[in-house]
Amino acid sequence: MTTPSPNYIGIDVSGTTFNAALVGADGAVLQRREAALERDGVGAQAARAVSELREAAGGAGVAGVGVGVTGLVEPGTGRVVVSTDLPSLTRADLRAELSAATGLGVVLENDANAAAYGEFVAGAGRGSRNLFYVTIGTGVGGALILDGRLWRGDSGFAGEFGHITIDPEGVQCSCGNTGCLETVASGPNIVRRTQERLLRDSTSSLSRLGLKRDFTAADVAHAAQEGDDFALMMLERTGRHIGQGLAAVINLLNIERIVLGGVIMEAGEMILSAVVREAGRRSFQPCFESTQIVAATLARDSVPVGAAMLARDSGDLAS
Amino acid sequence: MTTPSPNYIGIDVSGTTFNAALVGADGAVLQRREAALERDGVGAQAARAVSELREAAGGAGVAGVGVGVTGLVEPGTGRVVVSTDLPSLTRADLRAELSAATGLGVVLENDANAAAYGEFVAGAGRGSRNLFYVTIGTGVGGALILDGRLWRGDSGFAGEFGHITIDPEGVQCSCGNTGCLETVASGPNIVRRTQERLLRDSTSSLSRLGLKRDFTAADVAHAAQEGDDFALMMLERTGRHIGQGLAAVINLLNIERIVLGGVIMEAGEMILSAVVREAGRRSFQPCFESTQIVAATLARDSVPVGAAMLARDSGDLAS
After folding, report:
1. DSSP single-letter state for residue B15
2. Where in chain B is the domain with CATH 3.30.420.40?
3. DSSP B156-188
């Protein structure tokens, strides 16, 4: 008689939704709980979700909890030290609070790192040892897995892909630099560039995007996927910028696999091929030839799955 | 009574000179042998140097040999698979040949990797765990040490810093891309840019460089160090390009230390401060704040010392 292997709980508190999952030891999602994020009561909301999912786990039990958060997590303490999107996290000690409320070990991780780990264990990164993960959403995030482990860097800030300079004479970025990848490739900047071009370019009035007053980067991606020429052009250019940035990663790290996720990937094969083409054009060829560039497969499960698998693989669960 | 700790021999066959050293287990150079490189008899020249240095080692003995070569070394076989500068290396099996001739274990490593390891063990990288090494010479080379070990990447090509795109609309590079760092910052390209500017700019005739028919990047560096305004401007600009490239490394890896070596460093503090300024301007600040950017200290010893220390730390010396 074998004991059923324990499950893990992964929670994503990185966006506007709260997204929790019961995850098997193999990374498979067994149950989901989604709700609007209670911005000033994240700890209590997380404790309730853990309690519900633990009940759902039944006899298999839950061996640990992982939480992916928007912001920077201090490696030693597990405290969130910077979080522009959710400043309440920096005032609380979510790890200690959740651990006290549930009696379980808890790990906290930056959301891009958690998503990278999710794709690595159970998504498009499966089978690789070295992986760079990029997510294009409100910002441009990146995370590195080297030799099967998250690479956090000297002070926990590695993977700041969005602030690589793409155009030394480009647009001013919120970080103070000019021409960061984020100034052209983040969701809001894709919208900004598209709007500017719609105003400027008479032919663009033909685009279905021109019919809308407000639109999002996802709308641009969907229009492109449905064959809108103007949206295609905007995403093709976005893909080129991302490809140029990835070429730097490929040249420096001779990385085995690159996984692209986030809203922009809703444009599918079209954006991926633009990225791959430019990365190939701008990489040192022997480096490029050993890199696979693929689309993420876990979608919104990437953070919960990755956080749960980090709990599984963590040697020092606080409990 | 303690046995004296064994020594190692490190050899640099990366330039036009052959440069061998007897190196203590702590990375200190005990003896040097320099000569013109015998381009078609590298194996025999290396075997002679090993024999001489072994004699010099006396009772302490020599425990292994490391060789730094220009070109790409295949990690598994230790064969040189690509070497633009010294194609004879790809036809021979230098490791097997030298090992057979000396009866010692031999490791082969790419010269930039060996230099990085030398600086890491016994030079400007001492005390760090994570290091990026850049050398500006005929080309622009880079090498990474992560968690105390050389990071070679998926197929052995990591650290191709010279082919990072600095200016997407820049000059055509020999690699096929446009605007690679190497197209502006390598020794020959510093000379090219300086010559172009001397032709174009009337005030530049005031520069002492204008008095020479032929000059090298080292001449530009020396002129800058002696206060020549024009040479200072050329190197200040070169430093900015290098700083922009380093900002990508800093953002991606949140690296602890960056060590700059090669001919350009003969301009000293002036070039270093231009590099640091631009890297700071173009980095994500939390990443930049934990990075030290320093000048290499081993000069021409970096490759022999690093190769010797790689022999010391190699688990699989071929003998």
Report:
1. S
2. 7-111+300-313, 124-297
3. S----GGGSBS-TT-PBPTTS-BSBTHHHHSHH
Where is pLDDT greater, at A316 or A142? Answer: A142
Q: Which residue in chain A is spatially nearest to B284 when comparing CA positions?
A: A163
Cβ pair A172, A184 in contact under 8 A? no
| Predicted ipTM of the assembly | 0.92
Residue B202 CB partners (closer than 8 Å, separation 6+)? none
Mean pLDDT of A66-94: 84
Residue A281 Cα, gap to closest chain B Cα (Å): 6
Report the pLDDT value the prediction gives residue A73, as an integer from 0 to 100: 86
Asked if residue A278 has pLDDT above 90, the reply is: yes
At residue B23, the 3 state secondary structure works out as: strand
Phi/psi for B23 (5° steps) reads: -125, 130
**CB-based contact A154 B283, cutoff 8 Å:** no
- For A7-40, how does the pLDDT look when each residue is reduced to its tens digit (9 = 90+)? 999 999 987 889 999 999 999 999 999 999 998 8
Instruction: Flag residues of chain B having pLDDT under 70.
Output: 1-3, 202-206, 209-211, 316-319
What architecture does CATH give domain B7-111+300-313? 2-Layer Sandwich (3.30)
C-beta atoms surrounding B290 within 10 Å: 16
**3-class SS at B142?**
strand
Q: Are B145 and B249 in contact (CB under 8 A)?
A: no
Contact yes or no for A111/A14 (Cβ under 8 A): yes
CATH number of B124-297: 3.30.420.40
The Cα A293–Cα A60 span in angstroms is: 37
Of A154, A252, A253, the CB nearest to B290: A154
Of A59-68, A175-184, B87-96, B153-162, which range is least confident? B87-96
Total CB pairs under 8 A between chain A and B = 141
The answer to whether the Cβ–Cβ distance between B255 and A154 falls below 8 Å is yes
CATH architecture of A7-117+300-313: 2-Layer Sandwich (3.30)
**pLDDT tier for residue A268 given thresholds of 50, 70 and 90:** confident
- Cα A8 versus chain centre, distance: 20
Range(s) within chain A of domains with CATH label 3.30.420.40: 7-117+300-313, 124-297
Tell me the two tokens of residue A168: 């030394």
Of A263, A205, A202, A201, which is closest to residue A235 (Cα–Cα)?
Answer: A263
Pairing of strands A72-73, A80-82: antiparallel
